[in-house]
Protein 1
Amino acid sequence: KDTEPTLYTVKAVLILDNDGERLYAKYYDETYPTVKEQKAFEKNIFNKTHRTDSEIALLEGLTVVYKSNIDLYFYVIGSSHENELMLMSVLNCLFDSLSQMLRKNVERRALLENMEGLFLAVDEIVDGGVILESDPQQVVYRVALRGDDVPLTEQTVSQVIALLIYEKISYYLVNLTLTC
Amino acid sequence: MIKKFDKKDEESGSGSNPFQHLEKSAVLQEARIFNETPINPRRCLHILTKIIYLLNQGEHFGTMEATEAFFAMTRLFQSNDQTLRRMCYLTIKEMANISEDVIIVTSSLTKDMTGKEDVYRGPAIRALCRITDTTMLQAIERYMKQAIVDKVPSVSSSALVSSLHMVKMSYDVVKRWVNEAQEAASSDNIMVQYHALGLLYHLRKNDRLAVSKMLNKFTKSGLKSPFAYCMLIRIASKLLEETEAGHDSPLFDFIESCLRNKHEMVVYEAASAIVHMPNCTARELAPAVSVLQLFCSSPKAALRYAAVRTLNKVAMKHPSAVTACNLDLENLITDSNRSIATLAITTLLKTGSESSVDRLMKQISSFVSEISDEFKVVVVQAISALCQKYPRKHSVMMNFLSNMLRDDGGFEYKRAIVDCIISIIEENPESKETGLAHLCEFIEDCEHTVLATKILHLLGKEGPRTPSPSKYIRFIFNRVVLESEAVRAAAVSALAKFGAQNDDLLPSVLVLMQRCMMDSDDEVRDRATFYMNVLQQKQKALNAAYIFNGENTHCAPSLNLRALVELTQKPFDMKSVPLANTPITEQKTEFAPVATSKLPEKPGPTRQDIYQEQLAAIPEFQGLGSLFKTSEAVQLTEAETEYVVRCVKHTFARHMVFQFDCTNTLNDQLLQKVMVQMEPSEAYEVLHYVPAANLPYSQPGSCYSLVRLPEDDPTAVSCTFSCTLKYLVKDCDPNTGEPDDDGYDDEYVLEDLEVTVADHIQKVLKPNFAAAWDEVGDDFEKEETFALASVRTLDEAVGNIISFLGMQPCERSDKVPENKNSHILFLAGVFRGGHDVLVRSRLALADGVTMQVTVRSSDETVVDIILASVG
């Protein structure tokens, strides 16, 4: 039943180009089991959304939140009973992470040149339909792609250190509360 | 971090896709370099990316080739390049179901999972759990437990989520990790908290007490994660629903307190949970509605959408609770997101007042062409409901609908509009002409046969009675020239109706008919020839019988032909044509597409057919003739008594058969020789009893009584029978049903059974009552006036008369228009023996209802019977 409380929130994450072609598609359940059905769904979704800049729609009984940038269309799909804002947080996290990784250059060519970054980022955001992380900073840090020329910028180093310290402190705090 | 691919890709221009023309076999060929030493991380990474890209595009990999690539890939674990290693994890996950022997990487992954590199540990856990089965899971159990409580959030989250995935497969193993999950739930990291809560719930969801305890703990401790709060709200509302706890429960208080959370996600989840709870009072809804109201003006489209969608749900059950948001909803009807605008308008149509309808309709029309067909049908349905609620608004609606009718759209959409217009025409006589004009315009360019025939039928019925019928002829005849057979046939029937009713149009209709007789289609020709002959007789009675009121009872072409032959040879006796066995109870059936008469369609057996067959099987009832009417079942016992008896009355030409359906509800009794003894109050004579031989527990059985109607006094149509159930009781074992040998006679008094005038009359729908009235003529017309002192409204009077006489109301005269002091009710039926009977009843409201009843029939006795029974 749809009302069963569950962590399985996301049914699919899609990225299409401005011809509606699939650049990335990850389906997390059996709503569209075959590639044929998936492509038909993507076609429908693209036709219904690519001309409007509204960010949410109900399609084929599913809630679709989306966002477009230059020549890319990002979609996160969930059940129509799902909290729309949760789906939105996944979409925003994906977009913001990519935006940082591509240095605000979120467009088709840059994305295609960094496909492994995209693969790793989505893997850090959603795992088997469960939202794994919603903070783009964390995602970027975990994907930790090292560039050719600059291994780690000044900023990323301090970021990493700050995070390490933060985690250490929280660990001690947890231990403290446990012993108290 | 921007990567450069091979030079070749870069040269191919900015619009190209470096992955576009990837060949699977070429990529797999390239994968051989995985075996080269030293490993070139950059090239290997690029090849892995290509493989994953291909898998992502839906490319099919055979087991052999996948396994080969997979094994080559395992060698890449020797490299310490971070990104390459992470891509290996992804490849493992993607290939877990395609390649064989994926467990080969278990030890490498276990090493990474427990190693020093935090960046590897989380992803390694997730990859490992993807390839693990129950037995192997036990081997890594120790590491999983450690990982769940690891201080690094990504490790802990990965372990928790992977455990959740494993619950389906290895519940027994994972449930041993409850303590660790519990510890992780008190983590400060918001995602870890959320994942731990989710895992704990999945492990405990079948134990209501444990869930309740868990809720109690977390609702008090105060979580940080908005995701975890949403999960808690869902668990709490599910528990509330299951335990049917009242809304004074602490769980409800918790959900309500979440309305004040600082995260919109949590506030919305709580509001949505409250709205979806069954039996919420308006007072409990109010706080939820007011936060949704706030969201309506949010700059975020998703939030506005979520709010208005939820408010729409509230409006279905509690429209008054949403009225407070009307102003905010008004602002949304111009929203650039059309889903939001449509939801806002349909909500407003449910909650708004009559005065706002015009404005709303104007708004919808501004963007109705932009929304999808599914939403358009929703809008039409909302209009249809609105027309019933505010009948005075029909002119606005009609205008709007006609505009929608002109737009493009699929069949379902057009049908919804046509149905809506037809129902408006029927409810509001003053909108008839505009409505018909819009429909005429529509059929000029209508690709849907079903809709065209439906509209032609309506035109034939309503058109001749409008002030200027001639203007419809053109539209109808155009159909004969341009359309398919089914539409042409329907057009011919419609034309005939105009000719029959309007003497000045008759010559032109006859000319048109003549042209139709040259049609290439048999059915069209047959109809034209038939109508031509009937019309040429210029006899009102014939017109009424074969053109206006013919369609329901005898429309098969073969029958028409037979009528035609007899018409020219000898007087045709209507009584020889069997009546349609389906009493028309709903006016809707009238609109069944005319086209169906063309197809050799056999209607399923009616209830009466089934009874006729059953009765014919009983020897005592041979020779009664055909079954004239079967009544609805009448209960002769109270509910929940020892024996349940209901009676169905079957009327034949000179007899009645009473069928008693009996059920024995006592499990320790077997009844035998069951019959119902009847004592009539009038000169009815009981001829036969047909008992039910056995009536075991809970198996229904039937017994019958045959009664002769009094022949010397045909006016004695009503009679009361006092009924007694008589039977032989045998006690029996409730478990085995084995009866004793000896029994004793017993009886059980039933309620009295009434036979009324309605049992002698079969309903018949006359689509054109006036024509039928003229056809029967005034040879045996009688009129009388009655005062119904106890009746207060015209509606009530109409209802009483219809149910008393059991006749079919015609011309929708069973609906009394609002604010009227007088009304005319038209009733039609056939009396036992086959005499048509028509009743016109004028009602006037003044201190009670005065009723003037005029009855016409082809038989004088019938007229007397009706008047006598009304008096």
Note: Chain B has 39 helices and 17 strands.
Protein 2
Amino acid sequence: MEFAELIRTPRVDNVVLHRPFYPAVEGTLCLTGHHLILSSRQDNTEELWLLHSNIDAIDKRFVGPLGTIIIKCKDFRIIQLDIPGMEECLNIASSIEALSTLDSITLMYPFFYRPMFEVIEDGWHSFLPEQEFELYSCSCDEWRLSYVNKEFAVCPSYPPIVIVPKSIDDEALRKVATFRHGGRFPVLSYYHKKNGMVIMRSGQPLTGTNGRRCKEDEKLINATLRAGKRGYIIDTRSLTVAQQARAKGGGFEQEAHYPQWRRIHKSIERYHILQESLIKLVEACNDQTHNMDRWLSKLEASNWLTHIKEILTTACLAAQCIDREGASILIHGTEGTDSTLQVTSLAQIILEPRSRTIRGFEALIEREWLQAGHPFQQRCAQSAYCNSKQKWESPVFLLFLDCVWQILRQFPCSFEFNENFLIMLFEHAYASQFGTFLGNNESERCKLKLQQKTMSLWSWVNRPSELRKFTSPLFEANNLVIWPSVAPQSLHLWEGIFLRWNRSSKYLDEAYEEMVNIIEYNKELQAKLSYKYGFLKPEMHSPCLKFLLLWFL
Amino acid sequence: MEHIRTPKVENVRLVDRISSKKAALGTLYLTATHVIFVENAPDTRKETWILHSQISTIEKQATTATGCPLLIRCKNFQLLQLIIPQERDCHDVYISLIRLARPVKYEELYCFSFNPKLDKEEREQGWMLIDLSEEYKRMGLPDDYWQLSDVNRDYRVCDSYPTELYVPKSATAHIIVGSSKFRSRRRFPALSYYYKDNHASICRSSQPLSGFSARCLEDEQMLQAIRKANPGSDFIYVVDTRPKLNAMANRAAGKGYENEDNYSNIKFQFIGIENIHVMRNSLQKMLEVCELKSPSMSDFLWGLENSGWLRHIKAIMDAGIFIAKAVSEEAASVLVHCSDGWDRTAQVCSVASLLLDPHYRTLKGFMVLIEKDWISFGHKFNHRYGNLDGDPKEISPIIDQFIECVWQLMEQFPCAFEFNERFLIHIQHHIYSCQFGNFLCNSQKERQELKIQERTYSLWAHLWKNRADYMNPLFRADHSQTQGILRLPTTPCNFMYKFWSGMYNRFEKGLQPRQSVTDYLMAVKEETQQLEEELEALEERLEKIQKVQLNRTKVKSKQSEPSKHSGFSTSDNSTANTPQDYSGNMQSFLSRSPSQGDEDSALILTQDNLKSSDPDLSANSDQESGVEDLSCRSPSGGECVPSEDSGKDRDSDEAVFLTA
């Protein structure tokens, strides 16, 4: 397909762009296959460079011959374009609509993007499962890498390589897969080096109404327990929901068949409930009325912070079982691709210092979200402004990032990355020039040949020039478990995401800059001081150093 | 003391607010000035000190099998739940505290017995730190338009006003006295702030006694004089900070507001800030929300909204913003009043001044601002904050609201203020503590009669001495945010106003961020200063060596080993979350959990099983915290604020989960 077919009017002059906190700009609007570009004629600089895939919804209005297009983006920004000429406006609107909702993934920008930067390290190979396994479990001989899913035949949403108990062979895994939703048999998610306890995750057991059981499944998860120990199964659904799931062939682990395990039900919402929550929250944030009370009641009615609280609470509970109770846990909901991953990954943020570093966090996203088969393509297809009610959109990943931000807010010195890093990940999950978040699982990514045809987000991020933007100056490696507070007083609206386009961040940015300056200056002085101490060493008698000394003074 | 029925009760338990399962066993002492709880735990012997004057309410609850619970609510938002084994002891403590918390004479207050071991001269100097006549000079007064008036010498005209007042030059004593007779409690229009850049001023007064039709020529002349004192504008704003309905109701009582027809060239404006009773109830409702045990997000947000607190804060801010804009953008003078002109008027004038003048955003300037708009202009501290036993209907968190407005501004403009959040919290604490004489009484006149300056110490000197603790590390005198007027966005920003957990939940350390950026940056800056000094010394030394070397003399290397460099490294004194401190705890968890984990966890987690939400996690998640409270690093803090000791306890955050 040629994009040209979709672009009836590639260029319109005298278009006026309106954005909050900026003066209106008049310029020339250009449409390309993947971008909407507006450049003001005065100085030939582009004022706007927007990926079509970032467009969530558009509205058009006409007043006489002047058309107005309101573009609502997936990153919650709203911009307005005034376009002279009804025909041009209609053409532009229909082109944008078509280009922002392309069916085929292979037409997406990542397949056309040619990087203008030098790739230092290919992000596609930055986090290989084998290496990660080494990092996390080298000390234990109870676990092994299994290649049973090499062809994605056992579980289509799992990666080819998974970590399982050493005592369980691939044959048993195949059997367990038939007993778990989507073939998602229990695999290792996290190994707590301090006490050897683990987090496992899976899909729900397919017990159905007649209480079907699977010996291999029981054996597999019991194999993760040490002698005489018991574990916890955290079901992210309420008991009622879990019971209802039996009617559809799903269910939960019966005590009788899993006597060494204690089951805990939490209720983390999923799917459209989260999507509606996001829509309401963004609507509340965009509401510009004077009334203070309406803001709070709208914030409350969105339930967004309630979801945050529930997810964080469950993650804390999981971390507590591991670190405080010294008990291993298995976590699942229904499919094990959404709330399950929120909990396993947040528990690791709490427990594992490495996941609070930039690289460790990237590895976490690679392992617990991408490899673990969170369906990014489905979940992030639309954002808060989309009217069409599709079943699969859900801000699961955004909620996870928000929870990370909440912890970061409470422990600002314990994270190597700053808020901008999280915002960047949110943006790229919804619209990106990189292939990282395309597809719903590894199997799809393989078929799309993303590694060959697109660039990895990590290739771009992990260059010093980018890393500088995302590194928190406050970071001081903290090897401890960090326990966040989940009291309502401690949970806040993530302004950096939700009010980003509704308030000027000038003063906050200045404060951040000042903070960086204070710390940089301190480091500079330290460096200077140790450099100068160098002159006091005995070697200073060498003529070369003496020269240096003279030069320096 | 005759009011103490029992000075000491043993085996009292102090219940942890968040997790009721956790309680510390100890001894309760009643002294003439404090309630003190000392924990039995031999390694910590943690002490909690509560000043009697901080006690807001004492509640005796129904006796249970474990003993008799006593709930003490403090004005600085601390909440103490004690369980006293014997009903009789509990009753004695209760009766004693009821009396001790409500002194009837000023002489009973702590400031008359508090002795910081300063000599007379130091005390006098302390009182001289903040000088209002200096402040008026700084504003550029007197000048061609304004003069110091002695009309209120010996409080002859108005007993709640200060003696030193600035009035327009054209306002004769006759006009002032005439105007004062037409104003509630004779609080005639006087200068609060002078914006010398454009000669616009903020004046304050009480409501006019206009009733339905009364007029007063002198009052009209007074307003005229204020207008004339600002040649740049041909009108003045008269801002009535009350809701219109309240102001109209006052007319029936012979009071009311200015009729635009009677005064030439005024623009009259209502800005609806509610009265002290509404504010008192609002705070009460908000504190109930803060007290909720493990509330859901909806409980909290709904309760916060229902309290109306943030709406009131916004109303005060809006009024301040309106006035600041009128003065700076329209170059128009503003006369502000409410009913008596000592509550809402004080709030609004001080917010406007803070927005207009960077000086008030400095440490000393902020003290001056409180001294000027609150203390000197007769804000009724004694009545509002219940220092002496009095009418509970007079109590209202008026200055608390102003302090919160400042915090809200600090959140918006992180580099604009020289002081930090702790400064505000400590001022709030001392308004209620009665440890210093500054906030005693209802007016300057009363303070003079009590000879406060000879008998008590000044808070400002104390804060100034410890100013290192109150500095905002992000403040830089030459920063653009520091200069000029603070301009808030013109678009309505409801979301701008946030719940201040650092104040209202400040004793629940577990709810606060575990690492404080402010404290971290303060430590870095302190270290930076040391590094600068060291570098300078080193450079001098190197210079000497250089000379020596040029003389081809040998230098002993011994003398030049780098001084303990790592001693300053930030990781050492700033993050405080070093694993060493923590390993002790870590060990005990490890030794416990493998063997006992099963039973303990079964118990707790089964409970959890029954309920869908986990009521204790908000408390439990507190445990390891990873990070020792940075505030323990702060050198002053607890020294003169004894109750703050309760925040210094490092081990209290330990595993609630396991000890349960």
Note: Chain A touches chain B through 98 residues (CB under 8 Å).
